[in-house]
Amino acid sequence: VGCYTHFSSQYVAKISTAGRLSTLDIVALGVVNTVGAGVYVLAGEVASDKAGPSIVICFLVAALSSVLAALCYAEFSARVPHSASAYLYNYVTVGELWAFITGWNLILSYVTGAASVARAWSLAFDNLIGNQISQTLHESIPLNIPHVFAEYPDFFAMGLMLLFTGLLAVRASEFVLVTTVFTVVNVLVLGFVIISGFLKGKLHNWWLTEEDYIMTMFRLNDTSPLGPLGYGGFVPFGFQGILRGAATCFYAFTGFDSVVTIAEEAQNLQRSVPMGIVISVFICFLVYFGVSSALTLMVPYYQLQPGSPLPEAFLHIGWAPARYVVAIGALCALSTSILDSMFLLRWMTFVMADDGLLFGVLARIDSKTSIPIVATVVSGIITALMTSFFRLTDLVDLMSFGTLLTYSLVAVCILIVRYQPELNDEENEAEAQEENGPAAEKLTLWRLFCPGSSTPTPLSGRVVYVCFSLVALLLLLLCLVLVQWPVLLLFENPLLIIVVVLLLILITGITGVIWRQPQSPTLLYFKVPALPFLPIMSVFMNVYLMMQLTLGTWALFGVWMLIGFAIYFGYGIHHACRINPT
């Protein structure tokens, strides 16, 4: 398990050799690894038919949810101070099955992340050459399976993924310099977009009405496809649209875990890691806020075209030459993101195979290049197929779903581990004998709120486990009710308010029981504050955002998990390493 290497953090190897990392170094690392292709992929998708100009609020909600998840990651990095991921953290703290579920979800996130970016790369390039590729493929090989596959198979994006796979299977060291150059170009282009948007944008585009929509159609003679109008104004698709957009915008903040993977290199552990996380996410939010604001000020939201909105925005305001500059920046950022996702994907696949949870052939290392060739090729082929046949929207939503679930699992593990006793084998045996004897601790209503021990016991650990299971179930019910709130209000049912209030009372009471239980006294350089409230809030926000995604996304995720469980129970459970991962 300990052999896992966070391959995207090669930047860390450079700066850590010079000495301890300052808070500024950690912030820089978090920004570099987070600000990437998200804004290029998401801006047109979210603003056009989910949120409109209120996409800026979507990014804020997604940023808040990311901070909660990142703080939970920070405590895991304190418990397992190695370059690792949620997979290793879960393996070390809560066991094999949780680790497999987490790792399998991370693989899903990396696959769909690379596939969505490759699809966006294809759309951006196709836009530069007059949409010739999409028109040819749509006319020649249409896929008449709505709500399942894309309108046409994108063989150009598929070929792009196979090309990157081939490059990664040969050499990898040169890509560090390439990604650095691409990142600099990306930052300069985004800065140009923000400045241009505030210079050429119109505030009226944030308060569009149905009359503006009709006038636009009249001016274009109804030859250009327009997106849905919604209610118009700054929030054209209502509060529900903001939540749906926030669930998708979560995609843009993946990458902050690079901060916690190098926590042991920080000069001030207690201060640098949490501050680095919060500041880096805040800076990323400012970038996304600036770009999405500029975009929606330049172009009416219903005229945004998914896939290549930023270059098209400059064409809309009459800056045609700038369109090509922005397109080049977009292609650079998208290329970097593909490389990063493919690096992470192949090593996640390799590490799970090396632990026996996936097929052993995926763990074979080439003796000349020290690269897991089989894992690289297999993961590349799977990603290429998904790139070709799935829509960009489905890929983005599926990645967001897998990431939100992974972050929820991390929060759950933090909550469980902090309330469990940390005993060695002899103490465990003695504790078990005492618990079965006459002096065994008895569970009473008084003990629920006033435990007799200042340190966790097996009984208090079980109380937390059971209580949080109940809280998780109640949170799920609460999210289901809140998601259906607008529909239920139409029936003017007074029981709705009673149900919500009752759920909140039960959740608060059971959370109070967890809060009263003794926590582990183990000293760590960072612990999640306000336990158990912060992890529970993180789980609630993640689950609520997951509820905003479509039924098709849930169905695709269900199929992915069925495949994963078939692999685990058919192969992994029999071949996994039965060793203590610590």
Automatic annotation (TrEMBL):
Localization of this protein: Endomembrane system
Keywords, alphabetical: Amino-acid transport, Coiled coil, Glycoprotein, Membrane, Transmembrane, Transmembrane helix, Transport
Protein name per Swiss-Prot or TrEMBL: Cationic amino acid transporter C-terminal domain-containing protein
Family of the protein in this entry: Belongs to the amino acid-polyamine-organocation (APC) superfamily. Cationic amino acid transporter (CAT) (TC 2.A.3.3) family.
Example of a GO MF term: amino acid transmembrane transporter activity
Pfam families referenced in this protein's UniProt entry, alphabetically: AA_permease_2, AA_permease_C
Membrane topology: Multi-pass membrane protein
TM stretches of this protein: 21-42, 54-74, 86-107, 152-170, 175-199, 242-263, 275-302, 322-348, 369-392, 398-417, 463-483, 495-515, 524-545, 551-571
InterPro entries: AA/rel_permease1, CAT_C
Cellular component GO terms, alphabetical: endomembrane system; plasma membrane
Boundaries of every Cationic amino acid transporter C-terminal domain copy: 526-575
Coiled coil: 416-443
